[in-house]
Structure formats: C-alpha cells, structure tokens
Sequence to fold (168 residues):
Amino acid sequence: MTKADMARPADQALVNDAPAGHRPAGFDPSRVTDHLRNISGKVLEPIIKDAADRFYEQALHSAEDYLRENLDWNITSHISMLERENQRMRTELYEVDRAIGGVLMGHVARLETITRLDAAAAKHSELLYQVSRKYDGETRHQTALRYLRDRDSDGNPQGGDGTEHNDV
Fold:
C-alpha cells in the first residue's frame, strides 16, 4: 500500500461528507483525490524540500559557528594555560639551576681553598722535615721557627744567593 492509497479513504470521507448541494453534477470524488495528490507532488514537495534544505543549511551553519567559537575559545584558553604553565616551570627551573649553580660555585671555591691549603701544608711539612735535630722540649715546628728567627736576626733577610725572597 502506498502513501497515496493510505490517504485515499480520508480524502474520500471528506468529499463524501460534503453536503449534497455542494457537489457539482457528475462529480467524481476519486478524480479530486488524484488531483490533490498530483498538486501536492508538484507544488508542496518542492516547497517542503526547499524548507528542509534551508533548515539543514541553517542548522549546519549554526553548528559550525558554535563549534568554531567554542573550539577557538577552548584552544586559545588551553594555549594560554600551557604558556603560563611553561613560564612557571621555566621560573622554577631557573631557581633550581641558580641554587645548584650557587652550591656548585661554593663547592668549587671550597675545593680551591682546600687545594691551596693542601699545597701550603705540603710546603710546611717540607720545611719541618728539613730540621734534622730539634731542641729538647720543642717540636720540629718550634725548632724550624727558631732557626728562621735566628737567621733573620742576623740582619740578613736575603737568601743564600743574595736575593730577597717573599715566598710564604
């Protein structure tokens, strides 16, 4: 059964229910129904199709506009959030790097000081072990100090070769 066949009983009921005086002579209700079907196919279908197409286009454009606005906003807000997070992390990294750099510089300075002190201690030990005999009751250091003071008190601040030495 087609759509037109399903509509026929209702159309005929309308025509048959019309008062007898309103029906022209030789009136055939099936011709009216066919004529209405023919008109609806030629006139109403293009109107309905056009209205449906316009509705579809408007809905599609509205959906596209909505998505474009919301996606642009979402993407922009996410990019802004990521840029802020990136800046925060760079700041933290800079602070950590500065702290580590400061610690490392402190360690480097300490190592340099230790190296200098180690060299001075080696020179000091060398001087002490040059003292072959120490005085009774004195350490090698005290005896070495006595030798140096006795040598300086002779009025000769220069070394054995006549040149002045300022090494410590």
The longest helix spans residues 29-128. The helical segments are 3-17, 29-128, 140-153. The CA atoms of residues 119 and 125 lie 10 Å apart. The chain has three helices and no strands.
